[in-house]
Design a protein that fits this description.
With about 350 residues, the protein is α/β, with parallel strands linked by helices. Helix content is about 30%, strand content about 20%. The chain is built from 11 helices and 10 strands. It is globular. The chain binds alpha-D-glucopyranuronic acid.
Length: about 350
């Protein structure tokens, strides 16, 4: 047995390729059924279910800057208006497209600030990528509000299985995706969803439940993101319960607060749903709260899903990466940066290099 395999065995993970009832998953047909089962597990015990109400979306351009970023890009502000039979919500995002490229690929970027890509937009545009940047709290605020604001209005919160905030932010991203799918000036076969930290957790949920993203990028998403819970160091389920992050998840999730070994899933289930689309996970060596080793092992454990499609998942030597290592060969890309918890220019550059290599 290889070293990484033995590290995974030690984690005692629930089996990806076995149905809850016990039979093994065989072939693509079996996997397709297992995917549905995993989505159900994650909705019920982790993220909460999305609203079942029909929501209609209409996008309105409310502003345009034809000479943004020193004349290199066109930036539009778009207001998305969402209506159901009972409620209404609305949030803005910005879409910046480089003028030098016809039909650029794009990042849907979940942003911590209202500035495009948290202020590094020009660098991304210079590489020939468009950016649709949304300030996450415009979708729904990140504090306890009883789901009275923004998209929360489409489904009130129950203590069990209704959507947590991660699911709501992911729903917001999918509305932006719907809007972009109708834009002729974008390469709709190359739309990535990306976020850092809590927004990396959000990006993973978005990519796991919506196969239209060609690439899902999670930077240092840690607990509730890419990192396996079993055997994890740093942040635990109990820590997630103790703070504002409690609202990010379904209430049911916290039943497993002190019995992680009984959790009916682990995070390699979430990652595996992204297959066969590309996935990129990045970690930082001093980000001990997130736990880089558990983020990495989760990618190793998810690769079975890629193999079912005849794709290579993570291509890695048989040991844990060291700071500075970049693994770009497979359908799952990974890098480990030196330093602490942060979305750095270096991270963006690696992610862009991965997109270029795989044309996603
Ligand atoms: C806290 C939280 C993490 C989260 C991070 C962030 O550190 O404990 O789970 O990822 O905030 O989103 O910045």
């Amino acid at each position: 047995m290889g070293y990484l395999k033995s590290e995974i065995t030690k984690r005692n993970l629930p089996e990806l390729m076995r149905f809850c009832a016990g039979e093994p998953v065989e072939g693509l047909e079996g996997w397709n059924r297992r995917r549905v089962e995993i989505q159900e597990l994650l909705s019920r015990w982790f993220s909460g279910y999305s609203t079942r109400i029909q929501v209609r979306m209409e996008g309105r351009c409310t502003g345009i800057d034809e000479e943004s970023f020193g004349g290199k890009a066109i930036t539009k502000t778009v207001q998305l208006n969402l209506t159901s039979d009972y409620s209404f919500a609305s949030f803005p995002f910005q879409i910046a497209l480089p003028k030098a490229i016809k039909n650029p690929p794009i990042f849907i970027y979940l942003s911590f600030t209202p500035a495009i890509a948290d202020g590094v937009g020009e660098e991304i545009l210079d590489h020939g990528y468009g950016i649709a940047s949304v300030y996450y709290q415009d979708i729904v605020p990140d504090y306890y509000d009883g789901h009275q604001n923004g998209l929360g209005r489409f489904c009130t919160r129950n203590p069990y299985d209704s959507w947590g905030k991660l699911k709501l932010w992911a729903f917001g991203a999918s509305q932006i995706l719907d809007y972009i799918m109708d834009q002729e000036e974008v390469d709709i076969s190359r739309i990535a969803v990306m976020g850092h930290s809590r927004l990396g957790k959000t990006a993973l949920l978005a990519g796991a439940f919506d196969s239209r993203y060609s690439l899902t990028v999670s930077n240092e998403s840690g607990a509730g993101g890419a990192a396996l819970f079993r055997g994890k160091t740093g942040e635990s389920i109990r820590d997630l319960y103790g703070k504002g992050s409690r609202l990010w998840f379904a209430g049911n999730f916290f039943e497993y607060m002190d019995r992680v070994e009984e959790l009916p899933f682990d995070q390699h289930f979430l990652l595996s749903l992204i297959a066969p689309n590309h996935l990129y996970v990045s970690s930082a060596v001093q980000d001990v709260w997130a736990d880089p080793k558990s983020e990495f092992l989760s990618c190793v454990a998810a690769q079975r899903a890629y193999e079912i499609y005849g794709e290579r998942g993570l291509v890695t030597p048989d040991h844990f990466p060291e700071a500075g290592d970049v693994l770009h060969e497979g359908g799952i890309g990974y890098h480990l940066r030196k330093g602490t918890h942060y979305l750095s220019r270096y991270d963006w550059q690696q992610i862009i290099a991965y997109r270029e290599l795989h044309h996603v």
